[in-house]
Amino acid sequence: MIPVHIRSLGALMLTVISASALAEEKLPGVTRPEVADPVSSGNIMQMLFGLIIVIALMFALAWIMRRFTGFQAGVSGNLKVIGGLSLGTRERIVLVQAGDTQLLVGVAPGHVQTLHVLNEPLDASASTNTRGSFSDNLKAALKGQKP
């Protein structure tokens, strides 16, 4: 006795074979259009060429965005962010120079508030950071030195 699922599989295979045989028959007066092979070398080359163009365009746009990040500085050259300090996950204190005036500004999501207007502007070129940058500290730690 043959199990039911094997009989149904056999019937399915016979149906597929007979359908493909009928499809291959040439009927008089009926012409079938030629279908291009989707895996031909021409189609693959066209797809690779398009992929290369898209990747090159992505790299070109990334270079342009990195090169011209100062769009806003060209619009208003009198406004500069001198420094900032993070107070929490979304709160910051920022020192902004507008012309000759320096402002200490608190920035939070959806809210910016002037905290203090400095009477004597701080020297922007003088670095008050004596600890060094992260990369300097990392290099010193890898060499076994104290930063």
Keywords:
single chain, 4 helices, 4 strands
Shape category: elongated
Work out the number of β strands. Answer: 4
Task: Please trace the helix and strand order, writing H or E for each element.
Answer: HHHEEEEH
Biggest sheet features = 4 strands, antiparallel
In order across it, which strands form the biggest sheet?
A: 1-2-3-4
Q: Quick check: average pLDDT? A: 78
The share of residues in helices is 40-55%
Outline the secondary-structure elements.
Layout: H1 4-24, H2 41-67, H3 71-75, E1 79-86, E2 92-98, E3 101-108, E4 111-118, H4 134-143
Antiparallel strand pairs: 1-2, 2-3, 3-4
Describe, in plain words, how this protein is organized in 3D.
The protein has 147 residues and is an alpha+beta fold. Helices cover 43% and strands 21% of the residues. It has 4 helices and 4 strands; from the N terminus they run αααββββα. It has helices at residues 4-24, 41-67, 71-75, 134-143, and strands at residues 79-86, 92-98, 101-108, 111-118. The protein has a 4-stranded antiparallel beta sheet with strand order 1-2-3-4, with no helix packed on it. It is elongated, with a radius of gyration of 35 Å. The termini are far apart. The model has no long low-confidence stretch (mean pLDDT 78).
